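Methods: holo model generation. Sequences were used as deposited, without trimming of termini or removal of tags, and paired with ligand SMILES retrieved from the corresponding compound records. Each pair was processed once, and we did not select among multiple samples. The sequence and flavin-adenine dinucleotide SMILES for this entry were:
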Amino acid sequence: MRAFSYHRPDSVDAALRGVAGQSGTTTEAAVKFVAGGTNLLDLMKADVMRPERLVDISRLGLDRIEETADGGLRLGALARNADTAHDERVQARYPMLSKAILAGASAQLRNMATNGGNLLQRTRCYYFYDTGTPCNKREPGTGCGALTGVNRIHAILGASDRCIAVHPSDMCVALAALEAVVRVSGPRGERTIPFADFHRLPGDTPHIDSNLAADELITAIDLPAEGFADHSTYLKVRDRASYAFALVSVAAALEMDGQTVRTARLALGGVAHKPWRDPAAEAELAGRPASLESFRKAARVLLRDARGQSHNAFKIGLAERAIVRALAEAAGVEHP
Ligand SMILES: Cc1cc2nc3c(=O)[nH]c(=O)nc-3n(C[C@H](O)[C@H](O)[C@H](O)COP(=O)(O)OP(=O)(O)OC[C@H]3O[C@@H](n4cnc5c(N)ncnc54)[C@H](O)[C@@H]3O)c2cc1C
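and the model returned the structure below.
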């Protein structure tokens, strides 16, 4: 592990002064915030990330979960994943989110991990972690070890010829389906980022995971009033029953009119560089009967451009079945 300096401010302003003057995006920054440290410290120990300075934000008091004026909830960036998942309001009004968080990591990790850190956790691509192999995400321009290597856990949607890594978060998949909003503070004031615009596809710049600037701090995540509490679920398919990242996951949320779907939200994890939403697949469900047949149709629309690599083509069929099962569970339709 390389030497770095450490600073622990006690206010948002002081934390922002700690990263002031940095340009570009947060993934490129030499000075980094550290929250629970469950991802960043691992990456530093593996020499994958090499910040020169850490600004510890754990004492900023951004750990509350509060009501918003429009009937939603504001999740503090420093609220722990465990406290968020077990919050009674989250459980009652956003059960899909609670389920998604609890599907991730382990109890010990969720007790340390924060909501802001969860959004910015980095990919679990083996080649990203292995500094002896090329990786455009870790070292731009070196190549992609996964493209010709072992790519069983990699992307089937939205990948580029530079990077086929996937975003590993469970929580973010539910936040994408809920259309949460990320609240950010920086030297240019406060701003909000719709969840769909927070993470990026790899394109030519796979080293940049999100649109957060290097001098900005996530302060909270706002959940809209609509939580789809009556008809939603999070389904995670993985190699082990616990303590494993998703091969494919699905957040499914429906508004129902009797046995007809009024509106649908579908977000997939484990398949792309960001939580994957597809308006065409959601439109396919609107106004249709809640049946396995229409769920299958929507799944095929969502996966129309899916492309497998040498070891992960199985994910396409897996994703189709997972979407159908999640929609059936959300709608209360019997599924074989
Ligand atoms: C063994 C293991 C298994 C795991 N399994 C899963 C899993 O199955 N599903 C899953 O979803 N996750 C899983 N995780 C990941 C875990 O959820 C993340 O490590 C955690 O959410 C990161 O939060 P943190 O507060 O510890 O972030 P940190 O490690 O402190 O920070 C992560 C990144 O976020 C930045 N950051 C943190 N907070 C802010 C902020 N407020 N503003 C701006 N930047 C910020 C940091 O600079 C850093 O770049 C696993 C982790 C481990 C170690």
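Residues 234-331 form a domain with the Enolase-like; domain 1 fold (CATH 3.30.390.50).
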